[in-house]
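Quick log. Single chain, no ligands specified.
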Amino acid sequence: MSKKLLSVVLASAMAAGVLAGCGSTPAPAAAPAPAAEEKKEEAPAEEAKEEAPAEEAKEEAPAEAAADEGKVLNIYCWNEEFKSRLTDHYPGYEEVDATNGKIGDVAVKWNITPSTDNAYQNNLDEHLLGQEAAAADDKIDLFLVEADYALKYVDTDYTMPVADLGLTADELANQYKYTQDIMTDSNGALKGVSWQGCPGVLIYNREAAKEVLGSDDPETVQAAVADWDTFVKTAADMKAAGYSVMSSVNDSYRVYSNNVSTPWVVDGKIVIDDNLMKWVDDSKALVDAGETGTHALWSDDWSKGFYPDGKVFAYFGPAWLINFSMAADTEGSIANAGGWGAVEGPQGFFWGGTWIAAAQGTDNPTLVADIMRQLTTNEQIMTDIVKADSDFVNNKPAMEAAAENDEYAFKVLGGQNPLAMFCAGAEKIDLSNLSPYDQGCNEAFQNAMKNYFDGNSTKEEALDIFYKSVVEKYPELTY
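-> predicted structure:
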């Protein structure tokens, strides 16, 4: 789709409250981005940062920008995560204040808009539409996207192929394939890169495992959660001992939804995959048996399981959930005492991730390319990120080496090093069923099914609520 035509489509959609994308299928309507992505950076791993060694890679000078390039680098994002990575790890970055920095003689301006009520995407879309007419110092140079709505921007002229910035396939060869698949457009052009990978694991309460399973050894625990049928049997044992197997049915949703065989929309028709209906049936059985709740993720009730009195056996999540979101810095929490463990669980999955995209029309292509290069291909810098931030980074050699090194054990996991599991999980992630409608459909499906789980509707009535909600959001779809 041409930029001119796309601009018309986006402008019309914004006026109508729906943001359309490029190609034959529209992108998701404006809807709040998943709270998980906003939450994961709210609890930084302060202790890890204090213990991190000096960053040798930061001693290098930043790439020399061409003389005719801009003197202002405008970055659009929704929280402090990427800012902290650039501030802490990019060679030559100087922090001025909360929203300003310097790289050489280039001023760095941070435009940070929270994701709440879709504010970040709305702000980004408005400025992308005005990109061509904007003054040089006001043009977006790079912006961040996350997994649930990445496709909305990939197949448009507003994102630049990284090859046009000079990044080569050889430079990117050590990245996990799925992180590139999600940012590859319909013409095969890679439109963004990430410094992190987000494969997930089952995170278990060691005390609960000892009490109910007889051991907190990962092999024993994995045998008790090896598949969903076994997981359900273990849930009954946990209930008998006073534990919920999970805090909420929503904890397992990403595991099921990442293992579907069809996308949400096929030929303009909404399709509910069998594995999603399995989540519904399995979840209803667990709720009716009193073995889990229906709390919203990030709610106070959901978070009670971070503490011993919450009596929760397991959560599902990637490295960022373990290190940043489970109250590791709060005295009395299970994480603070090193009381969690990790196993593969019933199925592999991923959750979240942040990608760096270059805005078409940037007047700082050399600097944008170097930021991408340093943060997503420089093995030393990426290793420093692992040490300082406990992030699982998007570099196979770095992660495979760390997986075999006890120095990279997670304190919150009682000294267990889970990186080998994350490495294996990252290799298995399949995004072939990703669609531009994922964010809206996933949110609508979970919201509708809560009515059924809580006994406020039949399954059929909940499905009807779901279909009507999606069609209202995406009028071009049928069911």
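The mean pLDDT is 87.
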